[in-house]
């Protein structure tokens, strides 16, 4: 994995008012820390951060460059451990950079990219990813950009687990290898209720069921009336 270079500068001012002024000037307040150093507060240009880092998935190696040549901060390797994004504006509010030693293995999260069309999906099933990324252990320079997961062989009710992932040499999964990565579930079919006998059309001429409502007045009026009886006696 190639490192992404980002320019930083040391920051002396702290406090909410100072941080607010920095954000209004287009600067992201950040910290740089690690197991072998104390925490240093730094600034990163917001436009550069959004262009180079905001779109990155998982753990990505970053080279910090100090514009003033500060030996403590210049040409240091780090991972972006956390970034805070404003929920409405989408602006970066804060970032944490974690220093790494290129000669020591570490745990990093790597995104999963699903490829192919599962056999179960072809016959109507639904592909259901369970994990979107997986933790691996490797050297910082060997962190995969992503891991491809071929789902083509999966039928309905079949699943692929962490142990089946194809990883580069020197990269090993962390955690339970039996965890499900992706599965194919059967399609959901909405149940249909059977037609009740009472909903069937009434038989012509049948007597109404007990408790059934009388036919509407309009229907009764429309029914043909019986002819009046003829008067008795012969014509004189």
Give a concise summary:
This protein has 236 residues and is mainly beta.
Describe this structure in words.
The chain is mainly β and 236 residues long. The protein has two domains: 4-99, Ribosomal Protein L25, Chain P (Beta Barrel); 106-185, Beta Complex (RNA Polymerase Alpha Subunit, Chain A, domain 2). Helices cover 11% and strands 35% of the residues. The protein has helices at 16-24, 46-52, 119-122, 217-222, and strands spanning 4-10, 27-34, 37-45, 61-66, 76-85, 92-99, 106-115, 126-129, 133-138, 147-150, 159-161, 172-173, 180-185. The protein has a six-stranded mixed barrel with strand order 1-3-2-6-5-4. A four-stranded mixed β-sheet has the order 10-7-9-12, with no helix packed on it. A hairpin with a 2-residue loop joins β2 and β3 (37-45). The longest helix has 9 residues, at 16-24.
Secondary-structure element string:
EHEEHEEEEHEEEEEEH
Principal-axes geometry comes out as: elongated
Indicate the mean pLDDT: 83
Kindly give the count of domains: 2
β-strand amount: 35-45%
CATH architecture of the largest domain: Beta Barrel
Report the strand count.
13
Helix content: 10-25%
Radius of gyration: 37 Å
Largest sheet, in brief, is: 6 strands, mixed, barrel
- Uncertain ranges: 195-201, 203-207, 217-224, 231-236
Structural class, please?
mainly beta
């Amino acid at each position: 994995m190639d490192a992404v270079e980002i320019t930083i500068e040391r920051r002396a001012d702290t406090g909410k008012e100072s941080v607010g002024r920095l954000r209004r000037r287009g600067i992201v307040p950040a910290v740089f820390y690690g197991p072998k150093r104390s925490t240093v507060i730094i600034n990163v240009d917001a436009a550069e951060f959004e262009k180079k880092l905001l779109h990155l998935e998982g753990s990505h190696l970053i080279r910090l460059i100090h514009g003033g040549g500060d030996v403590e901060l210049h040409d240091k390797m780090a991972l972006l451990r956390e970034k805070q994004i404003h929920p409405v504006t989408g602006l970066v509010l804060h970032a944490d950079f974690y220093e790494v030693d290129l000669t020591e293995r570490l745990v990093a999260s790597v995104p999963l990219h699903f490829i192919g069309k599962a056999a179960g999906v072809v016959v109507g099933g639904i592909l259901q990813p369970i994990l979107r990324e997986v933790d691996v252990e490797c050297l910082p320079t060997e962190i995969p950009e992503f891991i491809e997961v071929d789902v083509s062989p999966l039928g309905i009710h079949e699943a692929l687990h962490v142990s089946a992932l194809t990883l580069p040499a020197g990269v090993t999964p962390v955690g339970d290898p039996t965890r499900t990565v992706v599965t194919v579930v059967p399609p959901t079919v909405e149940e249909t209720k059977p037609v009740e006998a009472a909903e069937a059309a009434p038989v012509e001429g049948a007597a109404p069921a007990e408790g059934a409502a009388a036919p509407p007045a309009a229907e009764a009026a429309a029914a043909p009336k019986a002819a009046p009886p003829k008067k008795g006696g012969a014509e004189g």
